[in-house]
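User: My notes are a mess, but here's the protein and S-adenosylmethionine's SMILES. Can you give me a structure?
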Amino acid sequence: MEDRQNSPDSPPVCDYEGSDYQTRFWDQGGRAYEDGAEAAALKRLLPPGGKTMLEIGAGAGRNTLRYKRFETIVLMDYSLTQMQQAQARLGRGEKYVYVAADVYRLPFTSGYFEAATMIRVLHHMAEPELALKQIRQALQPGATFILEFANKQNLKAILRYLFNQQAWSPYTLEPVEYIPLNYDFHPKAVRGWLAAASFELQRQLTVSHFRIGILKRLVPTSLLVWIDSIASLTGDWWQLTPSVFTCSKAAGVPEKASPDAGMFSCPECKSPLGEPQENLLTCTCGLRWGIEDGIYNFKQPVK
Ligand SMILES: C[S@@+](CC[C@H](N)C(=O)[O-])C[C@H]1O[C@@H](n2cnc3c(N)ncnc32)[C@H](O)[C@@H]1O
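Assistant: No problem, the inputs look usable. Here's the predicted complex:
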């Protein structure tokens, strides 16, 4: 995976363009337990339904069907090829909107969405607080935001640190970048960034307590997922798992978008973008954004 500087004033992006992540990591990677544990957490945290859901860093759409009670689901990812894979899996119906864009430069009208999720994406953020502030802009006040992050203060890291097998401390607030553009975060730091971005934390669930090869081999997946989902209920008290789900409500500004506002705004100047004409969204600032095979592309303007 290539990391690259998107533009001089934009944080670097862990680029999944051309990646076989879905096949390699999930479909053939022996991760049915982790997938089931995440499904259980989402089921607990998701609102009963609604009009508009934004899935940030959707990848190939592994989680998207879990949001099916929303009328419109917008899958957004920096990688065009991940969006193509999601489209191949879910189809081109009216329910799904596919958007290639950078979370640091979101192309959405302020206050538009009723809910958003970001699962297994924050761990690629060099500037997590900035990303969370951008997401807050796209949400209505009171919107639900479900965020998963990789927890540096997990039991394995604590044991390794205690037995001198690991140099970095799991207890300190700074991120640990274990490979370039892959970070584990301290839960307290994430809570601080959420608050700074005007999110009010409602609930935390600890997920993947049993990410241990021998347990995954010996214990039936459904049983392991069930025990995990019970253990996850302690998430507001302590967080010692490699993965933590948080559920927050959007507070503060911006206000809800007006009912006649469209979904998209220019990622550069933030002016509203009207209806597409001949597969182009043209902004008053002069930039034009393309729609390629049903995928809105806000990575680069059309020349
Ligand atoms: C580990 S994958 C997770 C995909 C999916 N959420 C899942 O759980 O299966 C991380 C995803 O985040 C996307 N991503 C990374 N940085 C991004 C950014 N700055 N803006 C938008 N998407 C980004 C990648 O393209 C990739 O598809």
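The chain has eight helices and 14 strands.
User: Great, I'll file this with my notes.
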